[in-house]
Automatic annotation (TrEMBL):
Fe2OG dioxygenase domain location: 102-203
Lineage: Bacteria, Pseudomonadati, Pseudomonadota, Alphaproteobacteria, Maricaulales
UniProt name for this protein: Alkylated DNA repair dioxygenase
Cofactor(s) essential for the protein: Fe(2+)
Keyword Transmembrane helix part of the UniProt annotation: no
Keywords: Dioxygenase, Iron, Metal-binding, Oxidoreductase
PROSITE patterns named in the record: FE2OG_OXY (PS51471)
InterPro entries reported in the protein's UniProt record: Alkb (IPR004574), AlkB-like (IPR027450), AlkB-like_sf (IPR037151), Oxoglu/Fe-dep_dioxygenase_dom (IPR005123)
Protein source organism: Algimonas ampicilliniresistens
Length: 205
């Protein structure tokens, strides 16, 4: 049977060409010079996530043992504001989001060897109507998306460097995750692996 993706899910293969991907990597390198990757941990248990993270934008998504999932205006380790959202990402949002306001946060996930992301719903935002727009760079990954309730079947798509995914409508409230990264297949990310950039609105427009 054909896989079924929820309404509002969109995949734009190779939205960014290799030259634009290289520019995005330069922007990430500059960003993490100002706001270094840090090791996020799960609420309560303190278990480390397998990705390391940073953010662009006025708000950054962070998590740690004591205070859990939340948005912060400053980096949890340096206390400095997050770097500005790069123009290429702003332009992408304006092109594909169909939303009147710019995103407030852009999470930078770095998947190194063996990293993945369990099924979850992005739900720390005060408005779940604005879409989530995400960019894949570097190694390919298997992205899974199911329904609005936990459990049940998922559909899967292999995301390659330069691909963009939009979660709007129902898909915005659906469980999704990254079940594996094909580590070492791309040479784009200087220290290897996959970079994912996920833009979100936090406050209602
Ligand atoms: O890495 C991806 O493609 C998905 C990331 C994600 O779902 C998230 O950061 O909430
Ligand atoms: Fe997510």
């Amino acid at each position: 049977m054909a896989q079924s993706f929820p309404p509002g899910f969109a995949h734009y293969p190779l939205y960014f060409d290799p030259a634009q991907q290289a520019l995005l990597i330069e922007a990430v390198k500059a960003g993490v010079k100002q706001a270094p990757f840090y090791q996020p941990t799960m609420p309560r248990t303190g278990t480390p996530l397998s990705v390391v993270m940073s953010n662009f934008g006025p708000l950054g998504w962070v998590t740690d043992k004591d205070d859990g999932y939340r948005y912060e205006v400053t980096h949890p380790k340096t206390g400095a504001p997050w770097p500005d959202l790069p123009k290429l990402l702003r332009d992408l949002w304006e092109d594909v989001s169909d939303w009147p306001d710019l995103p407030e946060a852009c999470l930078i996930n770095w998947y190194r060897d063996g990293a993945k992301m369990g099924l979850h719903v992005d739900q720390d935002e005060l408005d779940l109507n604005a879409p989530v727009v995400s960019v894949s760079l570097g190694d390919p990954a298997l992205f899974k998306i199911g329904g609005e309730k936990r459990g049940g079947t998922t559909a899967g798509v292999k995301l390659f460097s330069g691909d963009v995914v939009v979660l709007a409508g129902s898909a915005r409230r659906c469980y999704h995750g990254v079940s594996r990264v094909f580590y070492g297949e791309s040479a784009l990310v200087p220290k290897g692996g996959r970079i994912n950039l996920t833009m979100r609105r936090v406050h209602p427009s």
